Protein 1
Amino acid sequence: MTRTLVIQPVSRIEGHAKVTIQLDDSGNVQDTRVNVIELRGFEKFCIGRPVEEMPRITTRICGVCPWSHHLASGKAVDAVFGVEPPPAGRKLRELCNSIAYMEEHILHFYFLAGADFVMGPDADPSVRNVIGIVGKVPDVAKRVVRVRHMCAKMLEIIAGKSIHPDAVVPGGFSKPLLSSERDTVRKMADEAIDLAKFSIAFAKENIFPQYLDVVKSLGVIETGFLGTVKENGALNLYDGKLRLMSKNGSFVDFPYEKYTDYISEHIEPWSYLKFPYDKRAGKFSMDLDNSNGIYRANTLARINVCDFIDTPLAQAELEEFRKNFGRPAQLTLLYHWARLIELLYNAENVIRLLNDPEIVSTETRKKVVPRAARGVGCVEAPRGTLIHDYTTDENGILTNVNLIVGTTHNNAPINMSVKQAAKQVIKNGQYDQGILNRVEMAIRAYDPCFSCATHKFDGTIPVRIDIYNSDGRLVGTLAN
Amino acid sequence: MAARLAEEWFAICGGCEVTILDVGEALLDILPKLEIVHMPVIMDHKIYGQTGERTTMEIPEADVGIITGGIRNEEHKQLAQEMRKKCKTLVAMGSCACYGGVPALANLSTVEELYEKVYRGSVSTDSDGIPNQQIPALTDRVYAIHEVVPVDVKLPGCPTTPELFVQAVTALLEGKPFTLSGKSVCDECPFIREKKAVSTLKRPLEAIDFKAGEPMNTVRCVMEQGYLCLGPATKAGCGGSDGTPRCIRAYMPCRGCFGPLSDSANPMVDMMGALASVGLDAKQIPDRAATFNRFAGAQGRLRPTPTKGGKAS
């Protein structure tokens, strides 16, 4: 008998989604879908607002990466007003970006995805979570809780507020950093880099070798990649040019405002989330054997598109990673490894910026004047390239808003990885909670934030997995 | 015995969940007092059963239920009802759950206008129609939780604070009452007020007047400097144990994220009065309705505006 399995909600991700798995008569996977079941409509309800308020409104797209939206929005607003922040304003923004990255990469690796590896994919769901980790490795857990919280404290010292901040303003940063505050934060940064070094060493010794077979098989697909690099090809998470790489490793670079020449968004009737693809490919296809136009964003993409990393510890890790997996590396679970390389890069970058005397300059902001203009601002959010595109009238009131967020770029790849994983682990109608958790692991690798991605309407992407029979009748569901 | 806790999130950003983590190491002391039975962000309990075997959704029985986010689709409504049924005490956490929050700015438009913009009017999107398969329909507008099911405790804020979360959970565990401050953000603001504006109203396109490193209590009130600040019409408490309002720490005016002074308060009326009392003309503020109700658009405070010239803006 054919049937449909639904996993709802997909858990230990940010926001909502479900997975629908359709089994054929012999109980093998015929089709799968990751349904994103929410929408908040920021692109609509921001129209009519004064553009200078946008960095304070769009933070609410995501409370996990509010800094990414805050910064992309600040850069788009700068572009609308035609202003470049003073050097200290720019550096304070990049500093906050790197601290926020540390907080989020720690959160994802240890609190969300880590349980699948530390407790095991088949562990009882009641302990396959951060509370289970606290019980199993209490010293590591305590240190992780402390340092993640410390990163939030660093942001509070620098910007007043860590979640939904407001210090990024048109033309710069609202609050200069005092020397005394810099000294406090600098000491905290030492503890953060220690945890970053520990994390990648711990994972390379205890996690990746043990799960190498899973890494080599689960959710594996071949795609292109999108990320940001500096003019010299170095990894950068705050500013630079966009680089779109093809499966074969060739790439094209372009400035932010040209994104519509390279990226289109496809719509499917079963998800509120759109499916961006490489426009140059001509058509969109998620067919596992013959995909077309699909590219990925987030950690693995950035590690693939950059020519090098301009901090020494992270560069050494990149070289080792490339020696093992090549460029571009395609294995989906390598997102976790790439995430730990980025954690180290950000810890090094925070120290580099805090050691720069200019960071305590009191000139952090320029005055701006409203005008009719279009401005595109991008940053690399932890979950992928984030694009804010605003148009204003002569009074600086928004007349159009377009947003493409990190997770949205990965919508098609997540769907493909889920299908690949489901086909691999569900055979002859045999499945249990551990097997279905492996399907979710293919999603977790992408660290999706369906809150971000569902900014469109109500901004939350609940994930749910539905399983349908071959007549299209719903036979089961899993969701977050 | 540990208290059973269930948590659900609806039209959310996840910031309130991160706020729970921001309790920091003290969280490790609270956790043993709780048995978390449902919380999608950190654990794998599935509402249709672990292998999707159920046909109806189920939340386990719990002593305390927490909901973040407002209600934006039919599934949120059902889940809110299931949470109310299974939880002895129901907490609405964050301004989205309490007042609609920023997503309730969507209440300025109809659902049709939202779909039109997102799926048909975007510069980067192929126009292929509106998704409608295997996904729950959106509600006609964003609702605060208490508009759909009775709520016992409200923890406002965007996001709420770690301190409020700990106070509320501790009170609930000990069976003690929990009440919110009746003060306004201005009552906790260190800036100097002289009840008279020194400038006409200005948009926040430049820095307020302060010197780096000068004590906060020598800086002039942001609104008296001529910049709109929602402090007078906003509930106190955002500053947590530090006390100083969070946005003021960044030398930025308040935008009302802790919600109106009371459930029945109208921020529009309160702000008109506050502006007039220092000699400022509210009519000079662009986009008043959405600005004064940025976090409080549910409960009918924001409604669709008639479109001009027959064309949605």
Note: Chain B has two domains: 3-174, 181-299.
Protein 2
Amino acid sequence: MRTRTIKIPTIYQKYTGYRARLLLENGKIFDGIGFGYPTRATGEVVFNTGMVGYTESLTDPSYHGQLLCMTYPLIGNYGVPSFDIKDEYGLPKYFESDKIHPRALLIHNLSEIASHWNCIKTLDQWLYEERIPGIYGIDTRELTKIIRIKGVMMGCLHVTADDEIDNLVLEKNLRSDRYEGKNFMNDVSVNKPHVFGKEEDKTIVLLDTGTKYSIIRNILKLGFRVVQLPWNTSFEDINSYSPIGVVISNGPGDPKVCNQTIDTARRLIETSTPTLGICLGNQILALAAGADTYKLKYGHRGQNKSCKEVTINQSFITSQNHGYGIEADSLKKSEFNMWFQNPDDKSVEGIIHKSKPIIAVQFHPEASPGPFDCTFVFDKFKELVLTSKTDQI
Amino acid sequence: MLSFGGQTALNCGVSLHKSEILQKYGIKVLGTPISSIEMTEDRQLFKDAMKKSDVPVLESAPAYTLEDSLKIANMIGYPVIIRVAYTLGGKGGGVAHNEYELHEIVTRGLGISLVNQVLIEKYVGNWKQIEYEVMRDNENNSVIVCNMENVLSMRVHTGDNIVVAPSQTLNNYEYHMLRSAALKAVKYCGIVGECNIQFGLDPKSNDYCAIEINARLSRSSALASKATGYPLAYMAAKIGLGYSLDELINKVTKITTACFEPSLDYVVLKMPRWDFKKFEMVNRKIGTTMKSVGEIMAIGRNFEEVLQKAIRMSEIGKYGLVSNNNDITTDKDDKRTRDIESIEQALIYPDDNIIFDVVDAFGAGLPIEKIYELSNIDPWFLKKIKNIIDIELELKNCNKFEESLVRKAKQNGFSDKQISNILEIDELKIRDLRKKFGIKPVVKQIDTLAAEWPAQTNYLYLTYGGGVDDISIEKREGFEKSSVIVLGAGPYRIGSSVEFDWGTVNMVSGLKENGVKEIAVINCNPETVSTDYDISDRLYFEEITFERVMDIYEKENPTGIITCVGGQTANNLTMKLDRNGCYILGTRSVDVDRAEDREKFGKLLDSLNIKQPPWKKFATIGEAKKFTGEVKYPVLVRPSYVLSGAAMKVVWDDEQLEKFLNEAVVVSPEHPIVISKFLQEASEVEVDGIGGNNQIMIGAIIEHVDNAGIHSGDAIMCIPPWRLNRKTIDTITEYTIKIGNALNVTGPFNIQFLVKDDEVSVIEANIRASRSMPFVSKFIGINMIEIAAKAILNKPFPKVIKDLWLKKSGFAIKVPQFSFMQLDGADIVLGVEMQSTGEVACFGHSLYDALSKAYTAAGYSLQLSGSALITAGGQRNKEKLLPLVKSIQTMGFNVMATEHTAEFLELNEFNGIQRVFKISEPERKPNIADLLFQRKINFIINIPSTSTIEKYVDMLNDEYQIRRKAVEMGIPVLTTIEASTSFVKTLEWLKQNNPTIEPINGYNNNPI
């Protein structure tokens, strides 16, 4: 082991100490201390029970349109690393996209200090730079219990350096914005193709409905080239890249609004294209196959849930972030069987086609944040791709 | 199942396997198999296993000889860490910075390892020390129940470290990188059930390495269970029976699967409890050998809060991290104005005071970066400590009760007492003021899932980091709706250990059986049963301090509170709680005070016509000397309200008295000292009893095997008394009943007596559960605490045969267990200060039947032939030894003695005494040091001269050296005439007899 001379940077919080108030749809008010960027933000309030991984969560496009509450009370401890630290594929190692997606961050305690060998700034500074407000000093456990009991609801956060906070304005904001039924695709998807990996490798098309970098990382790790295409790319356009398989990514919102992606998925199923759906992609495949989806009361967001692989009766700890799910009974109307199940509420956590090389999972096999226990899903996909009859679609 | 009884059970299981006993009887090992245990216990096998599972390990190699170890250390490069295979608590290991240190540690390590193996390893003291608790079933479902970070880095053994859960300074990548490594390693090793894996993580890169796996439930597992609410031992047992994780249910939600990883929405901090003050000459530095005797766990919503809570929970006389001023219980060296050099040294070589040294370092103006560099404590933790110091300063500058500032202080863990010290406003006044401003803690639940699912259990903590209570307690009326709070015992420490947890738990079940509707327990010790959330209706994992108990009392609004089963900690709160409106169940606090206040107690004894050794209370040294002139030395000196002998001392002359009073204690009108005549060669007797319903039930009369002068916690105890006559027993019984009635005892009590020449006098009465009650209960087959519960609730006692304890046919012996090995430098001579850290009890058909088993259980090796080393100080001791030496020789032992003792023996017509030479004269052979290392001595009788005046001057340093080395080599050392006599007689008995092996009721089930 070599001795290093690098010091642990210790950086102090800067953008904090503002007045802040969170108003929930049910009228509940939380007063706390504002940090990050002083502004107003409205969105669906959701909670995540992960104890690490705020840089990954904050850049996860699936949180688009939401106000994210972390149930772990101490946030910001290890600061924010540089986007310049890249993995072996040239993607930022500690982030899942190039910006913060939740509209606000709701936490109990913001660390005054960032202490980690790779941090270059504090959480509050990062939020400030990305114009995202945050609130701390609130009882996040109380907030979480409200969401658990009443279900997810809209919330409006006002962080201000000088103005008085006007409840009427908060309420107006709350009423004028909706999360449900909204299509966020243009905010989270690419608008033109992006290519990763070596030219000589076989191509996997990634249909980007708000993908995390780690999905790209994991496909590259399989030894494939990745072509990332916009969410509304047609089946024919996909085919023009001669992929040997397709991945439909995670993403925000109600899957039912992604009509064009569902249409494309339907064609992928018809043509027996080796396909992997992740999270939103899982729901899109189910809808394309004739099954139904529904909105969960308060979603599954965390890194600690087990899912049972029902065919081999083995459980795996998964990383999850979803507010919608597949209606279990409706699967009967499709050619899919349940593949993974949440043992607690019996919800569908993955599906597998009865005859075709098509699989999908509701959880995040790419982890980040969260455990790496399910990367075998990618291996399974690779196996499906390589053993399916045709080299090309 | 081998993995539930700690290292002792694990080693025993491996031995049973190796000697093919398990095979012989066709016994299957459930849960983690032997092969996995061997793989994790043998350093080389472990290293190979890690390499095969693609988990990095530190450069290291095993050594079986000193020569090997030197070669390896040179190859790896100093500093190196020496780990001893198959020992517990890192026993015998250490860090060597050079060849000299290596020599010492390796020699010792090879001696105590069951397999004569040590591992020499690269030392990475500045790395982070991270632990994961893993559950794995037969089908390879595996989960991480908890990860933990050691605040004092790799430098300090995790048992002596300050530990937080979850980790605070790891990012997502590191957390899950280590998590994956843990699962890989555990899978390869084939663990079935629970284990703990420890990693080192470079604070300046992603480099890491696996340090070790404990293939068993450990101290860390207990901590992890309490930290998360996931009952590891319970689940591991189920897995051992063949269940898979996903078949099991989360015991907190009662509906979700047990195959999950708990998510915490709070932070937990474990702090060790050390008891160095009890030992003379002990090295207080903490490092790779565990030296703590207990621990506590604090739960809160930020680090500052849990750190300050933890300090209070440790019961080291502090109110928090700072503002402990104006109190005699604080260390005399607790000053902010130390010189920088001593602070820096303290940061580099930490001792039990490390966290306060950091405060001093900030006080001396050292920046965080510098403190980190010296202490290896991550800047994140340091900043949190700094926050506390800053708030103290803010309060000082403000100098009045300012609402927002006090609220901030409370959120950061300040106690009312600390605020009171800073603002110089009375503690109770602070309490009133903050309640007026609505500054109150809230009750939060531990639910394993961060509020995602509702909890069906009431595992609770209090915090100022929240706005609303998680639970509401309905108002109750009438006995049918009665509710009781039972105070637990706090950290295990010398003088208060599992016996008081036994008391707490049995009180809870006793109350339940007698119809109490709801019971709340307050305790903060993660090693206990009372802090299992299914023992009581509501468990408050909280400080046992006046402030916190009042907070809970106000929320609970109970029928009453019980303070008599949690040992001294709970007992000491009785008066204050009573005065502040708590209803104390059990003996009234005025009566408790009449027993504890020496003057009141003395008057009471006089009125009952019961003797006690002459004593007096003093506020000046002059008066004290006058008194000692009257009663003659030796005398026993102590302050009132003692905790297990702390600061007690036997004094033999004026010079020693002055020295002690001037240097070791404060003598003033507010803090008077009590001096009593110390009776030599008296037997000490104890009675455990229960009072209530106008009657006194005597559990048993217990006699010490040692003469008075050995703390009752360190003495070998015997039921029934082995040398008292019937008349004396009757007198003791009569006195017990008189005192019990006079004090209106309602509940448990214990009285200590001295018997000399058939004359009985009283030492003291404790109106609470005693250390020996579990022992007595086991012997008489009646649970005394359950009877105490009846007494407290005014229910009739069950019919018990009079003098039941005397009618049992068998003998019960309790032998203390010491941890001198772990305490570098500690002398093992016993005295009025309690030093033992545990105890064993054994039963037999005769005194020696029971004694022989008890010695073996306490770890003495009872060899029936070989050599005995005998040395004694003082003419009188030497004379008393003569018959013993005779017996030893008759048994066929070779007797070794040092010059003076040998000379004396020869003068008294002993032949064949082998002369051996002192450790301080290494050039003279045969030398004791060599003989010890070569294991040529089987036991040692080493009796220091009665007077301890010159205990540590050079001439006696040699005796100390002998005792110390023997402890390190695991050789029995007997330091009193009585202990030696009983030991030798036991050997004689063993020559002719075999100890019996029967279930406990074979010894106690048949009243004559």
Note: Chain A touches chain B through 60 residues (CB under 8 Å).
Protein 3
Amino acid sequence: MPPIPGDEALDYLLAASGLMLNAEQKADLRTTLEALEAMKARVRQPRGRMAELAHGFGFSEEDL
Amino acid sequence: MSIPTIAEAARLIATRKLSPVELTHACLERMHSLDDALHAFVLPTEERALAEARAAEADIMRNGPRGPMHGIPIGLKDIVNTEGLATTCQSKILKDNIPDADATCAEKLAQAGTILMGKLTTHEFADGGPSFDLPSPPSRNPWNTDHFTAGSSSGTGAAVAAGMILCGIGTDTGGSIRGPAALCGIAGIKPTYGLVSRAGVAPAAYSLDHIGPMAWTAEDCAIMLQVLAGHDPRDPHSANRPVPDYTAQLGSGVKGMRVGVIRHFHETDHKVAAATQAGIDNTLAVFRDLGAEIVDVTLSPLQDWHACGSLISITERAAAYNEWARTRLPDFSERVQRRLMLGALVSGVDYVHATQRRRELRDELRASMRTLDVVVTAGAPGEAPKMDAIPRWDVFAAPGFTMPFNVAGYPAICVCSGFGPAGLPVSVQLVGKPFQEATVLRMADAFEKATAYRGSRPAMVAA
């Protein structure tokens, strides 16, 4: 599992998202970081760059 | 008047033994006596309901019923747009929102001749959990008002269980139809992704959102789904395929059907309460006795499905509500604020990984179901918890049993499979192959008719 983001990284991510959080909210959010990283680890698997997304776009008769 | 199912009411209405006005009055009486305790309605529409009931009665007397939903009292979750009628999504942000058009599902139900009893309580924007910092309070469970209904279609679950409506619209992004159905002891089906139009319904997470029926029985869900299903060009993911007759197979038994059990989901990955386990075991015994074959199925751990669906859900919600999150974050409930905050921490790469995993998981389910008609697991871990026992960060609590079938887009129904030691319902979940709702409903209906659980309503309703 990659390292849990520190305060500076968290501030950067929040600034990039445009969310304005107070200190209490940031502290609350910090309590989730480990669980969120564990979640990400479950979908981050070695599968190679050719692996396709679930999204499927098909062309129908209307597109032709 | 006792509370009829839709099937019973339709037969009585068709033979002029029950008037839609009489039925609507009975539902209104229950609303008047129970909803102060249940908070199932965010906006009752009593005058409109009576006017629609009188019009339905006149129409039926003149021309006969348009179908089995003609004259049936219903409710709409308050994220479903209704022309000229407030649709607030239970949020301060939309407190003055009056849509100028009906959602497709609302329009179809109106065309079928239903009676709109009102807009139903939801979690804010179908997200978060029971919140006390919203314009109106969260709904409560009719089996015990100290307990949670589950959500986000909380008002629909409570109102159907209490007989204030015969059916209602729910929406389901990770279990928001099936969770309230499970905890309120009713039936709720999340159809295949694309079967029921999402047009005019506030999004939660685009690729996981489903609209579907919630009613007292699987048979009633079939009747309601018949009205809702079908192609809609207003929804870009609407499936363009023929709609079968969902009631045609009801009563034809389950002999020869093959039923898979995803035992590790509810026995190992997230061990359910004893009453829920007993309900699942009983369901399988009923199916076996009726001539079905039972086999075990192994999938990836429930935690993988939960992680995949949650990461997609967090990201798609954050995108859908990004503008308001940046400019009006304090106007959301604390629970929704927390969900939106998480969106800042999931990167584009994380989202792509989740969608790659989604394809793998869906392929896995498809392969496992190749020779099966349905698979079975829990609908919820046990009886409804108390209102004050819902975790602050519930997305990181134990994995839910419903999310896998939002990830896969497969149809799934929760029905009551008994009662626990606290007297609250427990449930079982049946899952079918894509667009095989008729099979799922047939199996659920067979189980309900072979057991006695549909004979019990909450004590507050019977009193």
Note: The helical segments of chain A are 7-17, 23-30, 33-43.
Protein 4
Amino acid sequence: MADDERRDGDAAERFDGYLDALLGDGRPSPEAVGDRDEAEMARMAAELAASARTGAAPDPAFLEQMRLRMRAADSGIDAVRVPPPVREAEAVPADATRRWRLSRRQVLQAGLGAAAGMAAGVIGVSLTGGSRRPSTLGDDAPLVAGEGFWTEVARLDEVPPGSALRFSTAAFDGFVVNDEGTVRALSSVCTHMGCTLHFRPDWNDLRCPCHGASFDLAGRLANGRTKWRRDGAYPGDAQAYPLELPDLVRPEVKVESGAIWVWTAQA
Amino acid sequence: MSSGPGPFERVYDAHVVPIYRFIYARVGNHPDAEDLTAQVFVRAVEQLDTSRDPGQIAAWLYRVAQNATADYWRAFYRLPLVGVDHVAPGWEPADESGPVVEPDERASVRVQALLRRLPDHYRRVLELRFLERLSVAETASAMGITSGNARVLQYRALRRAALIGDPTDG
């Protein structure tokens, strides 16, 4: 009997970790759940917690961000489901004339950034004076297609290997990254809910502050369940990100005369 | 550019709140409910034919939501995930075009019935913790017991509750 007490006491203490997260409206971890019986208890607890808040309303910010994604899907080419093939830097003659840069300190308001990143490359709207660019990718149609222009976003020497630099054009908010010599442009908008990503030099990833998704410098989810399990613990993260996410939007880039140019469709 | 919302946005507007509640009722916390809801609608963009009739669309969304929550719980049971593509075993809508039962009401009624079947002190500790949202310390103080005892009591109460009623209707 005393043994029962002690065993239940230890289990109860550990299981309370699950309940604390659940009732604090955090994200409960399966780690606090020891066995099948406790998994049943966790489900019961989740249902009890939910029933006390019948009709609990979703967060309006969440709803709005999801709506933007649905709108992007409706727009035809679609940031939600069709990640473009990775395009490496290539030498193409410059034909653009504009240059916008976001200073390192300058931060776009997150919602606007999400909308801008979503629109860029998703909608090819005719721009007076915009240049027409032939599509070269056949069936693997690039996300960035149709009408737009090349924009110089950084000098190559500003982005040494293993670094990233924020840039912003009228239509697009992103990073230019130097992945061990390969220059790419990546959207700074997380493909989960549209939060703005931050570059973490220590982990060489783009990290979402909202729910902890990490993208590698090719724009792929770096800490998803599959990858996390296969490769062992992702070094930048203690546990797997629970969802698989689409790749980040990757507009085409070119390096020319020591400058990095990014192709963006005009929103 | 165009007039009014497109088909995906219309489907989203019509269903996101009930789908969210359906999921929330099964996971009990907002961060996970948001993730799973996002998963459902991302899947909709990939696979849903928006020209299907509204009843079929609703049934499809609830089926994907059901599978997403089933997968969520599989992680707790240490079971392999099946992915939201697959239909959860034992769950099929009785009638694809029929109305979907409002999940909130049903869950709440079931929880009440379940609590009634528990011994008094078990029911009390669950009510204080889950319905009143008291901390362990506050619950202990309200019941005149130690925090350690309150933890054990809630643990046993949940174990008993889980034995009485399968929390999901899957």
Note: The two ends of chain B are 43 Å apart (CA to CA).
